[in-house]
Write a structure and sequence with these properties.
The complex is a heterodimer of chains A (about 140) and B (about 270).
Chain A: H1 12-33, H2 46-68, H3 72-76, H4 79-90, H5 100-121, H6 125-129, H7 133-142
Chain B: E1 3-8, H1 15-24, H2 48-60, H3 77-93, E2 96-100, H4 108-114, E3 119-124, H5 127-144, H6 149-153, H7 161-179, E4 184-188, H8 189-193, H9 198-206, H10 237-266
Parallel strand pairs in B: 1-2, 1-3, 3-4
The chains are: A mainly alpha (about 140), B alpha/beta (about 270).
């Protein structure tokens, strides 16, 4: 065997960093192996999908509640709110749980719900809304 | 007349949980906040506009956020203009506003120049926890195959990178706190974990009109992991410097606790 096929680890720091990175890699792979079942052909777990579908349902319910509230005319003045209303209440819903389009749609719904809740949880409305258990539950779940 | 509160602290030091708490207490932190990621499941609470601006200033100086040596940014007129516009816009729209971004540690003097009355909440964490948490985050990003793999890999190619970054960011915080003692309040992640009433302390000190929210409502101790072993270090010269900086930070934290005790006794 020629000399250049040997590896002499003479840099203790490089060795230590390599070792540390390997430990992280093992941890990463173990976590991935321990994760629940995946949707075939996708990197999204079924648990995650169920969570995303819940968040879409919560967003639709929240938007409906807001539209039925006395604040509806004020909210509708906001372009962003009108866009949410159009997208989640008046547009046809994307179906097919395993399609990438459906996943992207659900992830966007989750982001929109988080943004909406953040807006609502800030003052002046946050303290008033927090008196309602349903709102506190949404805050707890998504924020 | 607006009031401003900036949250500054090194990466992985509990600044996101602190910002979340302040957001709940009524502090406006931005129109468009960065979304949650697996490494920060409750969200970063960082305003995209401010973060982008900081990235741009770093890029103008041929830097990324991996700043590991003393850094004095050169800011051109275009960026000053952007900063001024942001300030004017927020001052017009909000009685009380602020922002949180770990990169802000490097730019506090610039913001203080534009916002002479701004208050700064300094959040710090022991170097061991912060650097381990950074390594965990960037190893996961590296193995997930996300973009910027070269950036994540740097933590395992450059000995002591995370430790030098911790030192640079926190020395910038210490320098700012020494120059502006009346406008700074320092809290450690340990204090937050032990339930230190941050919002109450800010109110006692500066009376900004925040609503009291308890730390327990947002801070999840399970979300922060400590390094399982001792801190590795390649360059022994760093040891003394890092330990000194840590002691100085702890002295700032102790000052916060003393000050509140005195204010409470004084009623």
């Amino acid at each position: 065997m020629p000399d250049n096929e040997f590896y002499v680890p003479d840099d203790i720091d490089l060795l230590r960093m390599e070792n540390e990175l390997l430990a992280f890699e093992v941890r990463f792979l173990k976590t991935r192996l321990g994760q629940p079942a995946k949707i075939p052909g996708s990197s999204t777990s079924l648990n995650r999908l169920a969570y995303l579908e819940d968040s879409e349902r919560d967003l639709v319910l929240l938007l409906r509640r807001l539209l039925e509230s006395p604040f509806s005319p004020v909210l509708r003045r906001s372009k962003r709110f009108r866009a949410l209303e159009q997208k989640y209440l008046h547009s046809p819903r994307l179906q097919g749980p395993s399609s990438p389009e459906r996943l992207a749609y659900l992830e966007e719904a989750e982001r929109d719900l988080v943004l909406l809740l953040r807006r609502m949880s800030a003052r002046p409305f946050g303290p008033v809304l927090r008196r309602r258990k349903a709102f506190r539950t949404l805050e707890q779940r998504y924020l | 007349m607006s009031d401003q509160l900036i949250v500054a602290g090194f990466h992985r030091s509990g600044t996101s949980a602190t910002a979340q708490l302040l957001h709940r207490a009524g502090l406006f932190l931005g129109d468009e906040l960065l979304e949650a990621l697996p490494s920060n499941p409750y969200g970063h609470f960082e305003d995209k506009e401010v973060v982008t601006l900081h990235h741009q200033i770093l890029a103008d100086n041929d830097m990324t956020w991996l700043v590991d040596e003393p850094f004095v940014p050169v800011v051109d007129e275009r960026r000053w203009q952007q900063m001024r516009q942001l300030v004017e816009c927020r001052n017009t729209e909000h009685r009380l506003w602020g922002f949180k971004d770990p990169r802000a540690c490097l730019f506090l003097a610039l913001w203080k120049y534009l916002l002479p009355n701004a208050k700064v909440l300094l959040v710090y964490r022991h170097f061991s926890g912060s650097t381990y948490s950074l390594a965990r985050r960037h190893s996961a990003l590296l193995f997930s195959g996300t973009i910027s793999g070269f950036l994540h890999r740097r933590f395992w190619e450059e000995p002591d990178l995370a430790l030098r970054m911790w030192l640079t960011y926190n020395k910038a915080l210490l320098a700012f706190a020494r120059a502006n003692p009346d406008d700074t309040l320092a809290v450690s992640m340990n204090m937050i974990r032990d339930g230190f009433p941050i919002v109450w302390a800010i109110e006692r000190r500066w009376n900004l009109g925040l609503e009291d929210v308890s730390v327990g409502e947002v801070f999840n101790p399970a979300a922060s992991v400590e390094r399982p072993r001792r801190q590795p270090v390649a360059d022994r010269r760093l040891i003394g410097e890092v330990e000194r900086a840590w002691q100085d930070l702890e002295e700032l934290g102790a000052r916060t606790e003393r000050m509140l005790k005195e204010m409470t006794i004084a009623g």
